[in-house]
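Worked example 4.2. Below are the chains of a multi-component assembly; read each line carefully before continuing.
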Amino acid sequence: MAGRALAAVVSAGLSRFGKLDGFYAREIFAQAAKEAFDRCPNLNPKRDIKSLFIGHMMESTEHQGHTGPLIADWLGLNPLPAVRLESACASSGLALRCGLQAIMSGLADVVLVGGVEKQTHLATADATEYLALSADNFFEQWHGFTFPALFALMARAHMHKYKTKEEHLAMVAVKNHRNGAKNPKAHIQKEITLEQAMASRVVASPLKLCDCSLISDGASCLILAKPELAKRYTDDPVYVFGTGQASDTIGLYARDDLTSLRTTVLAAREAYKMAGVDAKDIDVAEVHDCFTIAEILHYEDLGFCRKGEGGRFVESGATEIGGTIPVNASGGLKSKGHPVGATGVAQAYEIYLQLTGQAERRQVQCAEVGLTHNLGGHGSTAVVHVYKNTE
Amino acid sequence: MAGRALAAVVSAGLSRFGKLDGFYAREIFAQAAKEAFDRCPNLNPKRDIKSLFIGHMMESTEHQGHTGPLIADWLGLNPLPAVRLESACASSGLALRCGLQAIMSGLADVVLVGGVEKQTHLATADATEYLALSADNFFEQWHGFTFPALFALMARAHMHKYKTKEEHLAMVAVKNHRNGAKNPKAHIQKEITLEQAMASRVVASPLKLCDCSLISDGASCLILAKPELAKRYTDDPVYVFGTGQASDTIGLYARDDLTSLRTTVLAAREAYKMAGVDAKDIDVAEVHDCFTIAEILHYEDLGFCRKGEGGRFVESGATEIGGTIPVNASGGLKSKGHPVGATGVAQAYEIYLQLTGQAERRQVQCAEVGLTHNLGGHGSTAVVHVYKNTE
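Applying the procedure described above to all two chains together yields the following structure tokens:
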């Protein structure tokens, strides 16, 4: 099915990301949905939407599971079929993939996909513990391996094998904060200098505070339609042309190589093939920079540069807005923020804006082909999607 | 698409249900998968299975989320794309529905769907609290509305409006224990008398201990294939002809009527229409008897009898094995047990056995059309599937 649109993105919405005190997850999702509905006046949500797929990682944070009907109810869309998907930080990337399958199956013409997380009300130690639920309980969590520690192992290995420097990691943070400063919905809309990044306190050596993404609240959504119905809802649809997903060991200790995430390689290969494109065709990408080292690994694993050259790739400026392959123009998880369940579809929201020329001060010029890359845990899940703004 | 097979069930597996001390959820799921793989020697799981959808309600019970890759890893099936679905006790019913969509989308020829839960190691109060996560946090959970209390309200309303008696509720328990006594995998394989049921201690009046389903460990799975590939894997496939799903308010207080679950009515209507059948065509059904009153509501909402007559319907013997529409021949959640994430697909496992003549001492004669009905929470989710043993 190379080169055929799987579904059209006919609208998209995003809440502000940050510390959203006074709102519950259900209310934050409604903010994102309202934007998507307002953007698409030809859509009658109650009549047209046939299914809801929602990514939500942690039921513990608000003592509330059953997120599917919770959200359907809060949006006034009952009896809309609704389900929660969880694959750690890739939860809404997989909501998108399941939404695509619903469209392609013929069971639904229009679906709502999205994600939500509320976590800033937690003590940091509690949030860190809940996030660690996506690592292996018996062989990682109980031994103190939180996510900064797990990604620190990857950073050490990459630095050892490829001479990647701590400054390279810091450059990812500087770039993403530069972009996020131009995103009015970003959690931290502030530039930082290389010196500030290098001087931030150590979290899990060699990762410092500025190497870690943010603990944020937020929600995201997309409205997907069958490609042939897209023009009924919008003059500027974006089309999903490729989807790829892969799993790897639940424990990092069981992997052959800490300097590459095999799930990213495999998911990208599948998505590229389905879309009939290659890495060099991508004009703009949102990748899962949960830690700065992760973005460097993804450059390599997605084929944007050769293995081992990720550090020098960011140093070259290639991934800046205006570079050859701008990465995380939104600010990424590092600056825009990382409400985990919302992140995958928030990436797709940014690509939707970029491919329809609505990204304002952070607009990538002449962007026609986009990519999102969403990771679950330390790469036990990866899901990649490829988008084009022409059918 | 009335009357067209959506997918074929080419194999199925079920762990024993009960208190499975010494096994983690991942290991229990592997027991179910092993049965499904052993039953299907023509299947090469690593080569043929293209996606895994797994229902799992509670990440808190083993402090372990990210169930999708966890299970893929434990089965030795990496890099199999895998995702967890959660919709309370309907989690694996929705894993089945998403698996169908994956097959119908053309993205996968063969998928593994299933569910798992491990909860008997918890204190009862903790299990009750975790289960209550699927009710509304702010308006139900904090006010002490556990699930027995919520279903007790429905029982009271039904008794008041339709003269249903406590004995009618007890008759559901007696029937399901009679069936479960013939199921070698059931949690409690023991018959009970009406007197014993009536004399059991009150949990939430009018519901007594014998009106409540069990807190169990267990896992279930199905292997689904494109209908045209079914005969490659088995001589006796069962086909899924209809799927239906609906959502309702997350809070019970917001409903117009406590004596009917609107989600069941709507999901059944959709599944019947898709399959081109009506309630009278169903030869054998597994319905969500989380409480005895629930089974009585479902008789009515699924169209097996008229509204208000559910109590007298069970009294008539119609839903016994050998009756006009045998319900919960497996023993149901009441006697077979209720490992919540596994329940939806465990129902489908029973229908697979029944429609292929493998149900041994509890076999329903001449069963050709089957139905499963899986509920999430107090009916905020319902999902119904219709099966036939001919294409």
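Take a moment to check your reading of the output against the notes. Chain B touches chain A through 65 residues (CB under 8 Å). The two ends of chain B are 14 Å apart (CA to CA).
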